[in-house]
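Problem 3 from the worked examples.
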Amino acid sequence: TWAFPGGRIEGDETPEQAAARETLDETGYYIKPIKKISERDHPQFDFHLIYIACDLDITKVKPAIEVHEIEKSRWVEPSQLKDFFETDLDAGVAKYLGL
């Protein structure tokens, strides 16, 4: 199953700080959060989703050998995202990406 990096907000973190921490933990990529683009309740489970637009810092990447939370990652064109999600792609994310 493909998904955006994510997880719980810890302590006094902002959603943007949590997005940066979870992305690094799950992918090895350092990101700079830009802005919140959407949020909603999960359609199947009891939790709230917040989507954050980010820039990737290509000058810093953790070696993949240190990342243990994923099997693989893949960059795709925004137009291909719907091919990778088993559930619906968030409408706010789709709008932000021009889909």
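Problem 4, a separate protein:
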Amino acid sequence: MSFYFVNRDILNATKPEVLALLEELATTIIEFKKDKRRKLVVTKALNRELEDYEVEL
């Protein structure tokens, strides 16, 4: 099992093709979102039931 923490803003500004490749190769993508509340959102998963699953922190 491996975890990679990626700053999407920086990677997308410098090498957007690398970000697209990483997202395609990853089996699961969890995004940290900071709106009014901080939360983790599963945006891609092998188990489709987990997609769009949100956890407030």
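Solution to problem 4. The two ends are 23 Å apart (CA to CA). Strands lie at 29-34, 38-44, 54-56.
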